[in-house]
Amino acid sequence: MQQLLGNEYDSFAHALTHTEQPVSIRINTAKSAQAPCNATAVPWSGGSGYYLPVRPTFTFDPIFHAGGYYVQEAASMFLGRVIEQYISTPVRYLDLCAAPGGKSTHALSQLPTGSLVVSNEVVRQRAQILAENITKWGNPRSVVTNNMPADWGTWHNYFDVIATDVPCSGEGMFRKDDTAITEWSPANVAHCASRQEGIIADIWSALHPGGLLIYSTCTFNIEENEAMIEHIARTYDAEPLTIDINPDWGIANALVGDMPVYRFMPHRTHGEGLFMAVLRKKGEVDDICGTPPNVRDKKKKQGAKNKALPIPREVKEWLSSQGYTLIASETDITACPEEYANDMQAMQRDFNVLHAGIPMATLKGRDLIPTHALALSTACNHEKFALCEVSLDTALAYLRRETVTLPADTPRGYVILTYQGFTLGWVKNLGNRANNLYPQEWRIRSSYNPETIIEAGVKSSCY
Question: Active-site residue among 192, 218, 289, 336?
Fold first, then answer.
């Protein structure tokens, strides 16, 4: 880096080792358009990202658990600028290395209405976290899978956009993650570069001719960045694209060569390290958003869901709008957007799907139990359910999966708890007590000091 940056190196090294990383969030505009108090906008975020003056205790903010916002590093929000410039009609979008979900939730908010976002993660545990964050975001046009890149490569020409935030050596995380420093080595850089080449090779066939590849890393070296873009352009005859930026943002260009690439450096921009480039796959673009999926009509895998069953009438009224195909099995009911219902069912056959559309209800004997995903979905028809607004203390007790006490006049049955208007999830009110139905695996496990929460501003609507 000293050789590459020359006179800038001292400023770069000082920023990396002696300055604090900024705190930033991106609000869920489908659940709230309110900007945080005393915050300043992240200019390249697409209108939803904000820097916070202090770091609140996010774990103890119910709005965070309700999917009201996502805690995301500011530089990563540059994806919003790419979407603004290059995507104006609905697309099928794959976030290939998606966990924990920052760029996927950003795409769900920023892409044109009618788009489908498939979020994939190779590591099972990280894929579960990804599914949790996508569920909390509440967008029904989403799918979460736990598959290898090569698995998706079998869906030839299906996606209009593929985002690859590829595994890298993590140099851009040195300021915030000591582990990234201890794991770094020149050999690991070479290993990451080789792995990145393999990922692009595995997935390239799934990109529609004329489609976009968004390549990004959180590292600084040229082997995983400029050299990789040159490799993709040369190997696949791909066209690197320019992104319109404001010079005041401080975004750097290529450290070597003249490819249109975009670097966020800690001494230049208010954020961590990020490298991003956009390339277009050569080919006809007229039908980029209209080609039907090229999926295989193969038999369901062993252990797949049972045959479809009739849908209970009341479930059809649980959605706030039309345009969904409801699919029932002996164990659950799912709502899929009509235009993607066939696609989602094909994905269930071909991939390890953790989340798709809106999981509506589970069936246990004669009991029809609404899911947590339904409560958090932006398509949930809240008029069909009892709502109960709760205090911060009650909200935190609920999120810790403790016993909660409801007002005496609360209707019996399934009740949606809300905090400051944000949906938290279900309880089943039995009259003398309420069963807490918050997902066991999502519960807050750490202890908290109410006074610390008040000082951090979490009791206000400022996140």
Answer: 218
